[in-house]
Amino acid sequence: MEQKAVQLDRETFSCPICLDLLKDPVTTPCGHSYCKNCIKDHWDTEDEKRICYLCSVEEHKGHDTVSAAAERTERQRELEGSRHNIQQRIQDREKDVKLLQQEVEAINGSADKAVEHSEKIFTQLIRLMEERRSDVKQQVRSQQETEVSRVKELQEKLEQEITELKRKDAELKKLSHTEDHNQFLHNYPSLSALSESTHSSSIKIRPLKYFEDVTAAVSEVRDKLQDVLRETWTNISLTVTDVDVLLSLPELKTRADFLRYSCELTLDPNTASNRLLLSEGNRKANFMEDEQPYPDHPDRFTVWRQVLSRESLTGRCYWEVEWRGGGQFGVAVGVAVAYKDIGRAEDSDESGFGFNEKSWMLYRNTDIHEFWYKQVRTLVSGHESSRVGVYLDHSAGILSFYSVSDTMTLLHRVQTTFTQPLYAGLQINWLRNSAEFCKLK
Q1: What percentage of the chain has pLDDT greater than the value 90?
Q2: Of 282, 335, 286, nearest to 311 (Cα)?
Q3: Whether the model pTM is above 0.70
Q4: How many CA atoms lie within 13 A of 383 on its CB side?
Q5: Of 19, 179, 297, 388, which shows the fewest CB atoms inside 10 Å?
Q6: How many CB atoms lie within 10 A of CB 405?
Q7: Is 294 exposed, middle or buried (0-12, 13-18, 19+ CB in 10 A)?
């Protein structure tokens, strides 16, 4: 019995071709095992037909045998189908590559044209500014020459008059020492009369800063040009596709996440109410009891105690405001964003932050937080903090206010559509109150 088992086991591990134990065994798809060299030699002699040695010499139990030609025909049909699919995919991908290449060429061509056109425009602007600078310089020098000639002419007249007066004084002095009365009376009428004196009212002494009005006018042109360029540049930025919008924005949780979008803001003195005093490099606004001597300006808030930032806001921006209060009334400060065309001089809701459709404001009223938009007041829950963080995603229409401490606590969030660039705003309503754009690191 044991001998029979050994014999069966040897048959199991023997090569059907060489009849020896398997050496470097391999198995064919039909399930038979051979020595690698034996089956390779058999395939070579069979002209690489490959279908199995046992299957070719005897009917194999467990499956039907087919001719190599039939099997080749079936596999050839599958191969042709696979090749067809591959070739179709190649054609599709080649078309996609071609389309992408055309898009690249279109992008490059459009960008080149935009840059070329912009260069021409800026060159024209620079040339125009150079011409205006030359004109102003020439006008100032011409006026300088005229004024200096006028002054020197008066100066020469005065010097001539002084010389004549000194001569007359010497003659009169000499005559006054004549002892002979008859001689004195004889010579007195012969003295020539004094010429008409230059009246002092004809000499107009002007202030030392002769061309201060020119400097003021040029400065005004600069400010207006800066405003135009800033607003226009914002519009240019808005027309360029914001690639970030196409990408998924990870959720911002920590303060470090927000600081990646931090922006430095300053307050625009031309917009400040005359009850607000700006300091700290125009980053801080203080409520004052006395009105400040600000010059008239069309951008100034004349009724509401407000001020806007000089910088416009688009894309993703983050800034922080430190608000402080004092005295018995506590804190009454608003942190806002607004469009530039918000009302300025109106004693109405058109110019107050949060009282119209052109501005949004988070307001701290003593111990209460409120959000205002279009005169609608929304109470905001959240613990008190002296610092508020504001996050704006202009393209996505997201405006969020956070209480800033060791952690970021969301106070209120707005989801809307912004149609214009925004400007950061501050509103301060009580004495000893202040608000400041913080320097962020």
Answers
A1: 27
A2: 282
A3: no
A4: 6
A5: 179
A6: 13
A7: middle
